Amino acid sequence: MLIIGNGRVITRDAAAPYLAEGAVVTDGALIRELGSTAELRAKYPEAEFVDARGGVIMPGLINAHTHIYSGLARGLSIRGHDPHTFYQVLDGMWWNIDRHLDLEGTRASAYATILECIKNGVTTIFDHHASYREITGSLFAIRDTAKEMGMRSVLCYEVSERDGAKKCDEAIEENANFARWTAQENDDMIKAMFGGHALFTISDGTFEKMAKANDGLTGFHIHVCEGSTDREDSWNRYNMRPIDRLKKHGILGPKTILGHCIELTDDELDVIAESDTMCVTNPESNMGNAVGVAPVLKMFQKGILVGLGTDAYTHDMLESLKVELIIQRHNAGLPNVGWMESTGMLFENNAKMCARYFSKPVGILKPGALADIAVFDYRPFTPFSDANVDGHMIFGFQGRMCTHTVINGRLLLRDRELVGMDEAAITGRIREAAEKLWHELNP
Q1: For the purposes of burial, counting CB atoms within 10 Å of the CB of 184, is it exposed (0-12), middle (13-18) or buried (19 or more)?
Q2: Average confidence score pLDDT of the chain
Q3: What is the pTM of this model?
Q4: Closest by alpha carbon to 285, among 227, 231, 335, 243?
């Protein structure tokens, strides 16, 4: 049992949104009670006390779309790689990297990603993995690392025909095997989706194989219209819009996530809304790849459940929150739009997306919810409460202000130090794998 106290508690629970001086009690994997620090310490004297030192105690953050396979890429420059199109970015950088990732590289990438998430107060990730050098067992390797480090994770493998039929079939089988395993385990720490890359790398025949292998086990997690290529390919090869192809093959539905969703028409957004399919926007990645801006304002108007991810551009969800707001305003040419949508994606919709996979609530501090908690060392000069907390999040908070992270009731970060893990050894393992990968990419 833990008491995380002596802080300002933001619950994201409309029934009891704020405690100016409060604490949260965890019992096993769940939140047991909220109240004043003094009262709860007196009530539970045997509990371990975690001192927030006046910081902000809040639900752990959720990243609705990231890529573990990019974990070893920070600072990497591939000789001769000078992309002028989005396809060249994919083929010359990201597909190049994942073609060199073996199982150890995948494990190291998972360590790097999860370590960064914990230090930024991120407690749940929806990951979309690719390691075309060694596919079989890759999701299970990530599972083992996520369990070791305590990260709540929804995992899938990126099916694509880009490296041929054999590799494509292996990717389908990896998704299916992992989905069957998670269905048997029914563990709220690890869930599965069925991954797919962009539509232009997936033929109708492969979609049929994916739907058959999945057999209703879980939802799909697929890149859709991140650039113009999906639309051009769908019209040229199938005489269909991208969303119509997905509908035809049974990919849409309430447990499916469509990533990016930039080049979509109003009619396609209507199909997404009617099918109750989820979308995720990744503002910094999209801007960096010069592919455009997702029509988030329209998605909200049409009632689409749209969440916020990073595409692994960063592991700081608060950084992405800030960028999402300003790019929506810049795109609309209006300084008074996007606030409720941007904060709603991170603090409400990402939690709603989790509710479609986990049996207990995530992203909220209330009795019975999963005990995922982050503490931030944030001490503003201006008034602070639930009435203006989102303004503080946008203009004041940063991920690296996180001092404590609790996931599933397990204290993983205390005073910015990992608990029960050898950070030096983990970092050494990551660096060794990174040096090997970089050497292969630049022989």
Answers
A1: exposed
A2: 97
A3: 0.97
A4: 227
